[in-house]
Amino acid sequence: MSSPAADPAEPTAPAIGPWTRRATLPVTLFVQAASSAAVIAPTVAAPLLLQRLQLGPAAVGVFIALVYLAAMFSSPLGAALVRHFGPIRSSQLALLASALGLALLLVPWLPAVALGALLVGVGYGPITPASSQMLARTTAPRHYALVFSVKQTGVPLGGVIAGLLVPPLVVLGGATAAMLGVALLCLAGLLAALPLAAGLDRDRDRGAAWPSLWQLAAPVRFVAAHPVLRSVALCSFIFSIVQVSLTSYMVTYLTTDLRWTLVAAGAALAVSQTAGVVGRIVWGLVADRWLGARRMLLVLALAMAACGLLMPLLAPSTAALPVLVLLCAFGATAVGWNGVYLATVARLVPQAQAATATAGTLFFTFFGVVIGPPLFGAAGTAFGALGPAFALLALPLLAALWSLGRGRWG
Q1: Which structural domain range is residue 24 located in?
Q2: What is the model's pLDDT at position 3?
Q3: The dihedral sign for the CA sequence 303, 340, 345, 130
Q4: Does any domain span residue 410?
Q5: Is residue 210 in a domain?
Q6: Which pLDDT does position 13 carry in this prediction?
Q7: Distance CA 165, CA 186 (A)
Q8: E strand or H helix at 376
Q9: Sign of CA dihedral 401, 363, 149, 320
Q10: How many domains are contained in the chain?
């Protein structure tokens, strides 16, 4: 994968030991999975949580919008957190916020639930900038796409965990057991990251002043001033709409449109997210060795559009196997693009700016997630079914294809 930027320079931070280099990828993977599970778990338990609050399925989209609205602003803040506390301590603070947010979702009072959703988002936003900074320091640039893709498998792995863990916990102890179980997973991620703090947090600036609002927007301005990063950010904005619509509404789609049970729908979500795990690794490998970033993302955009157009063709009478095949194809593409995207961002800038560039592009990624689910839910309500809403996702994907088609960056 080529780009107009030169290969990043060697890091100027203190030398990192071989054990820390080997442990960084698995730890960031665990942290990402726990954070992702905190976002997806409430959508799996949505039938019970919505019943408590006497709300309809469209509220799932509002929940996701609140989560990613907070993430949209906490992601640029993540660059400042990394500078002040270091990437490990920043990740630990983020996981703690997610765990507290999950606990608040159990309070049967709408303002508390809204605050819980915002806290989950506050915790989700800084995770990727922090991990990008760590991986940029511990990975050879020629392996960026593959390594970043492996780390980003933590997002669909979180979906697998939520799909497999939440329904049994709901059966055993209701929504309380499910949310607290995932909160404990976040705390386990916090503890798992602790041994890396000495090596990866050594270059933090504890005396750094906290940024003003203008300075907080610096990552966004940085991306806006970079032509290729602007194109990548636009594509991530659109792809994130597709990804979060699929992930957030799959269980509701299967239980309402296709009349599956909650346990079966949760298992299908896990299977689809597993396909996303495989997809992230495969697409990263293909981008590194053969297609390059732009052509890889073009292929994924076309495949996402095709999968969305096929969703309305499914019915309650459709056998489980073709449903699962389509959901796996959709998951592999709609969930599998992130590693190629993040590796591209990291490759385009010097290592010291990896967190800033990632935070800036994630602002646009999360903005897509903020507006996507409410619009998707509204479309499903207007149609009286979610299948046609999936087909409508082909429209924004056309804009992504246009942007990618005119690019010259790899």
Answers
A1: 18-192+217-405
A2: 37
A3: positive
A4: no
A5: no
A6: 44
A7: 14
A8: helix 354-383
A9: negative
A10: 1
With a cut of 50, list the residues of the chain below it in pLDDT: 1-13, 410
CATH code of the domain covering residue 387: 1.20.1250.20
Contact criterion met (CB below 8 Å) for 133 and 355: yes
> What pLDDT, on a 0 to 100 scale, did the predictor assign at position 10?
39
Q: What confidence score (pLDDT) does residue 5 get?
A: 39
- Using CA atoms, how far residue 7 sits from 142, 350, 389, in Å, is 9, 8, 42
Q: Which of 406, 288, 405 is nearest to 344 (CA)?
A: 288
Residue 169: the pLDDT is 93
pTM of the model: 0.75
Contact 156, 276 (CB under 8 A): yes
Instruction: Check residue 407 and give its pLDDT.
Output: 59
Distance CA 50, CA 96 (A): 25
CA-to-CA dists, residue 159 to 56, 223, 360, angstroms: 22, 29, 25
Residue 21 near residue 138, CB atoms below 8 Å: yes
The answer as to whether 241 is a domain residue is yes
Q: Is residue 173 part of a domain?
A: yes
Residue 81, C-beta contacts closer than 8 angstroms, at least 6 positions apart: 90, 93, 126, 130
Give the integer Cα–Cα distance in Å for 70 and 82. Answer: 18
Q: What is the pLDDT of residue 164?
A: 87
User: Alpha-carbon distance 162 to 167, whole Å?
Assistant: 8
- In this prediction, residue 128 carries a pLDDT of 83
